[in-house]
Amino acid sequence: MGSNDLPFIFNESTNDYQTVNIQGQISYKISDPKTLADVLDFTVTDSGVYKKNDIEKLNQRIINEAQTATSSFIHEIKLKDAIRSAKAIEDRILAGLTTSPAIGMLGIEILGANILGIQATPEMARALETETREKLQQEADQAIYERRNFAVEQERKIKETELNTEIAVEEKQKQIAEKKMESEVQKADNDRRLREMRLSADIAVENQRKELIEQKTANDKKEADTQGYILETTLTPYKSVDWKILTAINNNTDPKFNISLAFRELAENANKIGNLNISPELLDTLLSEKKEGR
Protein backbone atom coordinates (compact mmCIF):
# COMPACT_ATOMS: atom_id res chain seq x y z
CA MET A 1 0.00 0.00 0.00
CA GLY A 2 3.06 2.28 0.20
CA SER A 3 4.70 4.15 -2.70
CA ASN A 4 6.91 2.30 -5.16
CA ASP A 5 9.81 3.50 -7.36
CA LEU A 6 9.79 1.76 -10.71
CA PRO A 7 13.05 2.09 -12.66
CA PHE A 8 12.81 1.83 -16.43
CA ILE A 9 15.00 1.86 -19.49
CA PHE A 10 13.94 1.74 -23.11
CA ASN A 11 15.20 2.74 -26.55
CA GLU A 12 13.60 5.09 -29.06
CA SER A 13 14.51 6.41 -32.51
CA THR A 14 14.86 10.11 -33.22
CA ASN A 15 13.83 12.04 -36.31
CA ASP A 16 17.31 11.56 -37.80
CA TYR A 17 17.10 7.77 -37.30
CA GLN A 18 19.39 7.62 -34.29
CA THR A 19 18.74 5.40 -31.26
CA VAL A 20 18.63 6.95 -27.81
CA ASN A 21 18.61 5.12 -24.49
CA ILE A 22 16.23 6.68 -21.94
CA GLN A 23 16.65 5.82 -18.26
CA GLY A 24 14.52 6.95 -15.33
CA GLN A 25 12.07 5.96 -12.70
CA ILE A 26 8.38 6.33 -11.99
CA SER A 27 6.97 6.76 -8.50
CA TYR A 28 3.47 5.43 -7.85
CA LYS A 29 1.26 4.00 -5.16
CA ILE A 30 -1.80 1.76 -5.15
CA SER A 31 -4.76 4.00 -4.45
CA ASP A 32 -7.53 1.39 -5.04
CA PRO A 33 -6.36 -2.12 -4.09
CA LYS A 34 -9.74 -3.70 -4.88
CA THR A 35 -9.72 -2.35 -8.45
CA LEU A 36 -6.16 -3.57 -8.91
CA ALA A 37 -7.05 -6.98 -7.47
CA ASP A 38 -9.88 -7.28 -9.98
CA VAL A 39 -7.46 -6.71 -12.87
CA LEU A 40 -4.41 -8.61 -11.65
CA ASP A 41 -4.02 -11.68 -9.46
CA PHE A 42 -2.13 -10.98 -6.24
CA THR A 43 -3.10 -14.25 -4.52
CA VAL A 44 -0.42 -15.55 -2.16
CA THR A 45 0.27 -19.00 -0.77
CA ASP A 46 0.18 -19.93 2.87
CA SER A 47 3.82 -18.97 3.05
CA GLY A 48 3.12 -15.45 1.67
CA VAL A 49 4.51 -16.04 -1.84
CA TYR A 50 2.61 -14.71 -4.88
CA LYS A 51 1.08 -17.48 -6.89
CA LYS A 52 1.53 -15.39 -10.05
CA ASN A 53 4.06 -12.77 -10.90
CA ASP A 54 1.46 -10.10 -11.75
CA ILE A 55 3.44 -7.41 -9.96
CA GLU A 56 5.78 -7.60 -12.94
CA LYS A 57 2.83 -7.17 -15.24
CA LEU A 58 1.86 -4.04 -13.34
CA ASN A 59 5.36 -2.63 -13.68
CA GLN A 60 5.56 -3.50 -17.36
CA ARG A 61 2.21 -1.89 -18.12
CA ILE A 62 3.34 1.32 -16.42
CA ILE A 63 6.61 1.26 -18.39
CA ASN A 64 4.75 0.58 -21.63
CA GLU A 65 2.47 3.54 -21.05
CA ALA A 66 5.49 5.70 -20.26
CA GLN A 67 7.25 4.61 -23.46
CA THR A 68 4.09 5.20 -25.47
CA ALA A 69 3.84 8.74 -24.10
CA THR A 70 7.51 9.35 -24.94
CA SER A 71 7.90 7.75 -28.37
CA SER A 72 5.79 10.25 -30.35
CA PHE A 73 7.80 13.15 -28.90
CA ILE A 74 11.20 11.49 -29.54
CA HIS A 75 10.25 10.64 -33.13
CA GLU A 76 9.69 14.33 -33.88
CA ILE A 77 13.06 15.66 -32.71
CA LYS A 78 16.68 15.09 -33.66
CA LEU A 79 19.30 13.26 -31.65
CA LYS A 80 20.95 16.37 -30.19
CA ASP A 81 17.60 17.78 -29.14
CA ALA A 82 16.53 14.46 -27.62
CA ILE A 83 19.67 14.27 -25.47
CA ARG A 84 18.86 17.72 -24.04
CA SER A 85 15.09 17.07 -23.55
CA ALA A 86 15.00 15.36 -20.14
CA LYS A 87 12.55 17.84 -18.62
CA ALA A 88 10.23 17.69 -21.63
CA ILE A 89 10.26 13.85 -21.53
CA GLU A 90 9.45 13.88 -17.81
CA ASP A 91 6.44 16.11 -18.48
CA ARG A 92 5.33 13.88 -21.35
CA ILE A 93 5.56 10.71 -19.28
CA LEU A 94 3.75 12.26 -16.29
CA ALA A 95 1.00 13.66 -18.49
CA GLY A 96 0.64 10.39 -20.40
CA LEU A 97 0.41 8.24 -17.28
CA THR A 98 -2.05 10.50 -15.42
CA THR A 99 -4.40 10.67 -18.41
CA SER A 100 -4.04 7.07 -19.56
CA PRO A 101 -7.31 5.03 -19.24
CA ALA A 102 -5.27 1.83 -18.83
CA ILE A 103 -3.45 3.25 -15.79
CA GLY A 104 -6.78 4.52 -14.40
CA MET A 105 -8.20 0.99 -14.62
CA LEU A 106 -5.37 -0.35 -12.49
CA GLY A 107 -6.32 1.68 -9.43
CA ILE A 108 -2.89 3.29 -8.99
CA GLU A 109 -1.79 6.91 -8.56
CA ILE A 110 1.26 8.26 -10.39
CA LEU A 111 3.33 10.37 -7.98
CA GLY A 112 6.06 11.51 -10.36
CA ALA A 113 8.44 10.67 -13.17
CA ASN A 114 12.17 11.38 -13.35
CA ILE A 115 14.55 11.02 -16.30
CA LEU A 116 17.97 10.00 -15.03
CA GLY A 117 19.75 9.86 -18.37
CA ILE A 118 19.38 10.06 -22.14
CA GLN A 119 22.24 8.52 -24.04
CA ALA A 120 23.07 7.81 -27.65
CA THR A 121 24.80 4.65 -28.84
CA PRO A 122 28.52 4.47 -28.01
CA GLU A 123 29.52 5.05 -31.64
CA MET A 124 27.22 8.05 -31.97
CA ALA A 125 28.29 9.33 -28.55
CA ARG A 126 31.92 9.27 -29.71
CA ALA A 127 30.92 10.98 -32.94
CA LEU A 128 29.08 13.65 -31.01
CA GLU A 129 32.02 14.03 -28.68
CA THR A 130 34.32 14.40 -31.68
CA GLU A 131 31.97 16.89 -33.32
CA THR A 132 31.61 18.78 -30.08
CA ARG A 133 35.34 18.63 -29.52
CA GLU A 134 35.97 19.94 -33.03
CA LYS A 135 33.37 22.62 -32.56
CA LEU A 136 34.86 23.62 -29.24
CA GLN A 137 38.30 23.63 -30.86
CA GLN A 138 36.94 25.81 -33.65
CA GLU A 139 35.36 28.09 -31.09
CA ALA A 140 38.67 28.19 -29.22
CA ASP A 141 40.51 28.94 -32.47
CA GLN A 142 37.91 31.57 -33.28
CA ALA A 143 38.34 33.04 -29.82
CA ILE A 144 42.13 33.11 -30.30
CA TYR A 145 41.67 34.66 -33.73
CA GLU A 146 39.26 37.24 -32.38
CA ARG A 147 41.60 37.97 -29.47
CA ARG A 148 44.56 38.39 -31.81
CA ASN A 149 42.43 40.37 -34.23
CA PHE A 150 41.29 42.54 -31.34
CA ALA A 151 44.91 43.04 -30.28
CA VAL A 152 45.87 43.93 -33.86
CA GLU A 153 42.89 46.25 -34.10
CA GLN A 154 43.83 47.91 -30.82
CA GLU A 155 47.43 48.23 -32.02
CA ARG A 156 46.15 49.75 -35.25
CA LYS A 157 44.00 52.19 -33.31
CA ILE A 158 46.96 53.10 -31.11
CA LYS A 159 49.18 53.67 -34.15
CA GLU A 160 46.38 55.56 -35.85
CA THR A 161 46.01 57.70 -32.73
CA GLU A 162 49.77 58.29 -32.65
CA LEU A 163 49.74 59.21 -36.35
CA ASN A 164 46.77 61.50 -35.82
CA THR A 165 48.64 63.08 -32.91
CA GLU A 166 51.75 63.53 -35.06
CA ILE A 167 49.62 64.96 -37.87
CA ALA A 168 47.97 67.33 -35.40
CA VAL A 169 51.39 68.36 -34.06
CA GLU A 170 52.73 68.86 -37.59
CA GLU A 171 49.64 70.84 -38.50
CA LYS A 172 50.05 72.97 -35.39
CA GLN A 173 53.74 73.49 -36.15
CA LYS A 174 52.80 74.38 -39.72
CA GLN A 175 50.30 76.91 -38.42
CA ILE A 176 52.93 78.31 -36.04
CA ALA A 177 55.47 78.52 -38.89
CA GLU A 178 52.89 80.19 -41.14
CA LYS A 179 51.97 82.59 -38.34
CA LYS A 180 55.63 83.31 -37.71
CA MET A 181 56.20 83.85 -41.43
CA GLU A 182 53.19 86.17 -41.55
CA SER A 183 54.62 88.07 -38.58
CA GLU A 184 58.02 88.31 -40.28
CA VAL A 185 56.40 89.44 -43.54
CA GLN A 186 54.35 91.98 -41.62
CA LYS A 187 57.46 93.16 -39.76
CA ALA A 188 59.42 93.39 -43.04
CA ASP A 189 56.55 95.31 -44.60
CA ASN A 190 56.42 97.63 -41.60
CA ASP A 191 60.21 98.09 -41.78
CA ARG A 192 59.93 98.82 -45.51
CA ARG A 193 57.18 101.33 -44.88
CA LEU A 194 59.23 102.87 -42.09
CA ARG A 195 62.27 103.15 -44.39
CA GLU A 196 60.09 104.61 -47.11
CA MET A 197 58.68 107.10 -44.63
CA ARG A 198 62.19 108.02 -43.46
CA LEU A 199 63.41 108.23 -47.05
CA SER A 200 60.44 110.35 -47.97
CA ALA A 201 61.15 112.55 -44.96
CA ASP A 202 64.83 112.78 -45.94
CA ILE A 203 63.85 113.58 -49.54
CA ALA A 204 61.43 116.18 -48.29
CA VAL A 205 64.13 117.66 -46.06
CA GLU A 206 66.64 117.60 -48.91
CA ASN A 207 64.11 119.17 -51.23
CA GLN A 208 63.44 121.84 -48.66
CA ARG A 209 67.19 122.29 -48.17
CA LYS A 210 67.65 122.46 -51.93
CA GLU A 211 64.90 125.02 -52.16
CA LEU A 212 66.50 126.88 -49.26
CA ILE A 213 69.92 126.79 -50.93
CA GLU A 214 68.42 127.82 -54.24
CA GLN A 215 66.52 130.57 -52.50
CA LYS A 216 69.63 131.62 -50.59
CA THR A 217 71.70 131.50 -53.77
CA ALA A 218 69.08 133.53 -55.53
CA ASN A 219 69.03 135.96 -52.64
CA ASP A 220 72.85 136.13 -52.55
CA LYS A 221 72.89 136.65 -56.31
CA LYS A 222 70.33 139.37 -56.03
CA GLU A 223 72.27 140.92 -53.17
CA ALA A 224 75.54 140.68 -55.16
CA ASP A 225 73.82 142.14 -58.18
CA THR A 226 72.51 144.88 -55.96
CA GLN A 227 75.94 145.51 -54.42
CA GLY A 228 77.52 145.42 -57.85
CA TYR A 229 74.98 147.83 -59.15
CA ILE A 230 75.54 150.11 -56.18
CA LEU A 231 79.30 149.87 -56.57
CA GLU A 232 79.11 150.39 -60.31
CA THR A 233 76.81 153.32 -59.82
CA THR A 234 79.11 154.73 -57.16
CA LEU A 235 82.31 154.28 -59.22
CA THR A 236 80.91 155.41 -62.53
CA PRO A 237 81.70 159.07 -61.89
CA TYR A 238 85.32 158.16 -61.08
CA LYS A 239 85.99 156.19 -64.27
CA SER A 240 87.10 159.25 -66.18
CA VAL A 241 89.21 160.70 -63.33
CA ASP A 242 92.94 160.01 -63.24
CA TRP A 243 93.96 157.64 -60.55
CA LYS A 244 96.60 159.93 -59.37
CA ILE A 245 94.01 162.51 -58.62
CA LEU A 246 91.88 160.00 -56.81
CA THR A 247 94.88 158.86 -54.83
CA ALA A 248 95.77 162.31 -53.95
CA ILE A 249 92.23 163.09 -52.91
CA ASN A 250 92.04 160.10 -50.59
CA ASN A 251 95.51 160.64 -49.06
CA ASN A 252 96.01 164.43 -49.26
CA THR A 253 96.80 164.70 -45.59
CA ASP A 254 99.81 162.31 -45.62
CA PRO A 255 103.04 163.99 -46.79
CA LYS A 256 104.94 160.77 -47.01
CA PHE A 257 102.31 159.37 -49.35
CA ASN A 258 102.71 162.36 -51.57
CA ILE A 259 106.48 161.89 -51.55
CA SER A 260 106.03 158.24 -52.55
CA LEU A 261 103.82 159.30 -55.44
CA ALA A 262 106.48 161.72 -56.51
CA PHE A 263 109.10 158.99 -56.48
CA ARG A 264 106.78 156.80 -58.52
CA GLU A 265 106.34 159.50 -61.13
CA LEU A 266 110.09 159.95 -61.27
CA ALA A 267 110.46 156.23 -61.82
CA GLU A 268 107.88 156.21 -64.59
CA ASN A 269 109.73 159.13 -66.30
CA ALA A 270 113.21 157.93 -65.55
CA ASN A 271 114.06 157.79 -69.23
CA LYS A 272 113.42 161.51 -69.40
CA ILE A 273 115.52 162.45 -66.37
CA GLY A 274 119.15 163.06 -66.79
CA ASN A 275 120.39 163.41 -63.17
CA LEU A 276 118.50 163.10 -59.87
CA ASN A 277 119.95 164.08 -56.54
CA ILE A 278 118.32 163.02 -53.32
CA SER A 279 119.79 164.24 -50.08
CA PRO A 280 120.83 161.69 -47.51
CA GLU A 281 118.80 163.52 -44.89
CA LEU A 282 115.60 162.94 -46.83
CA LEU A 283 116.30 159.23 -47.24
CA ASP A 284 117.32 158.89 -43.62
CA THR A 285 114.14 160.62 -42.53
CA LEU A 286 111.95 158.41 -44.68
CA LEU A 287 113.70 155.22 -43.61
CA SER A 288 113.68 156.09 -39.93
CA GLU A 289 109.98 156.81 -40.01
CA LYS A 290 109.42 153.55 -41.79
CA LYS A 291 111.32 151.64 -39.07
CA GLU A 292 109.39 153.43 -36.37
CA GLY A 293 106.14 152.48 -38.04
CA ARG A 294 107.04 148.80 -37.86
TrEMBL record:
<protein>
    <submittedName>
        <fullName>SPFH domain-containing protein</fullName>
    </submittedName>
</protein>
<feature type="coiled-coil region">
    <location>
        <begin position="160"/>
        <end position="225"/>
    </location>
</feature>
<dbReference type="InterPro" id="IPR001107">
    <property type="entry name" value="Band_7"/>
</dbReference>
<dbReference type="Pfam" id="PF01145">
    <property type="entry name" value="Band_7"/>
</dbReference>
<feature type="domain" description="Band 7">
    <location>
        <begin position="11"/>
        <end position="148"/>
    </location>
</feature>
<keyword id="KW-0175">Coiled coil</keyword>
<dbReference type="InterPro" id="IPR036013">
    <property type="entry name" value="Band_7/SPFH_dom_sf"/>
</dbReference>
